[in-house]
Amino acid sequence: MGTGSFIKVVAKNIDVLAGPFVTFVYPLYASVKAIETKSPIDDQQWLTYWILYSLITLFELTFAKLIEWLPFWPYAKLMFNCWLVLPYFSGAAYVYQHYVRPFIVNKQTVNIWYVPQKNIFSEPDDVLSAVERFIEENGPDAFEKLLKKAKRVSNGKTSKKSDLVEEEKLEKQERRSMLPLTWRRPKGHRSKRITKAR
């Protein structure tokens, strides 16, 4: 009867007896060993464990009144901690790989004050249609002029008077080169003036 009642007491209070060992003693020992090794894998495991343990403790402190009404909470917590701690399961590493790392690597942010903004170009085709509309309204020369101006601004050139004069000369040369051959005048050609006989 003495041994049977001892086993019942141990079984009934397994969470109280094994809890400190599973949640503190072994993780502290393993964390010290992880510090001494050069492998980042065990560091990951134990850093993640301590973060999760802190979150569990914070949850317990926050919802203490609710947890009092859950008789299975201490056993569920013990089982979860065993899954996180035991090297056979490496639950903390699993949680890191599948939940924490993707969140950090993808750099997802949650904005609780989200205000939708009007997006002028919601689809890639909108940019193309806007360019086509601009060319239809202003012509291809105006579009090329706009592109050159944008290049000049992006290169950091300032618009000095000499730059503008030079740009106008280049534009005239380009326009001349675009004319059909029959419309071009020869280089040395001067137009003859017709004078009326008086």
UniProtKB/TrEMBL annotation:
The chain crosses the membrane at residues 47-66, 78-96. Pfam families: TB2_DP1_HVA22. Residues 184-198 have a biased composition (Basic residues). Its main location: membrane. Keywords: Membrane, Transmembrane, Transmembrane helix. It is found in: Membrane. Residues 151-198 are annotated as: Disordered. Residues 160-177 have a biased composition (Basic and acidic residues). InterPro entries: TB2_DP1_HVA22 (IPR004345). It is a multi-pass membrane protein. GO terms for cellular component: membrane. Belongs to the DP1 family. This is HVA22-like protein. It comes from Vanilla planifolia.
